[in-house]
Write a structure and sequence with these properties.
Layout (H helix, E strand, L loop, with lengths): L10 H6 L9 E4 L1 E2 L2 E2 H10 L6 E5 L4 H9 L4 E4 L4 H33 L3 H11 L18
Parallel strand pairs: 1-4, 4-5
Antiparallel strand pairs: 2-3
Length: about 150
């Protein structure tokens, strides 16, 4: 299907790996060696790993599904599932990660532009954003120029 994948034997092995620069997702079994997949999902979030997760399991129940989805999982598939269901979930997760990465890139660019502003430009920007006209942003003590 043109997708690149990488397998990890343990959650620790995944954490030691380098995350790809492009959109990615994690297909995660609920039962992992040494750790529960739902607990690992929470640990990833706590450590700042922002990666879309698709859960697969042969031992799922409704409370488990709800917990995974409320914590941000893209999908929760119970075995047996159709190959197409997994592919659809992967494409959805990759799309989600692509959008997130784009938003993060745009935000970083905005921060860079903001950081390049002078203190006065930041002050004026704050006032304009609050609804004032840029001509209204002059300090009240500054005399107006006569024409």
């Amino acid at each position: 299907m043109g997708l690149r994948s990488e397998a990890f034997g343990t959650a620790h092995e995944f954490l030691r790996s380098k995350r790809p620069d492009g959109p990615s997702c994690l297909v995660l079994d609920v039962r992992l060696p040494g750790v529960n997949g739902l607990d690992f999902q929470r640990d990833l979030a706590d450590k700042g790993f922002r990666i879309p997760i698709i859960f697969i399991t042969g031992h799922g129940d409704i409370p488990m599904t709800v917990k995974a989805m409320k914590s941000g999982a893209v999908e929760f598939l119970t075995k047996p599932f159709r190959d197409q269901d997994l592919l659809d979930a992967i494409h959805q997760a990759l799309d989600r990660d692509r959008v997130t990465r784009q938003q993060q890139s745009e935000l970083a660019e905005l921060r860079k532009c903001y950081d390049a502003l002078t203190a006065r430009e930041r002050e004026v920007m704050g006032l304009v954003v609050s609804g004032m006209l840029n001509k209204q942003s002059l300090p009240r003590s500054a005399p107006a120029k006569s024409q």
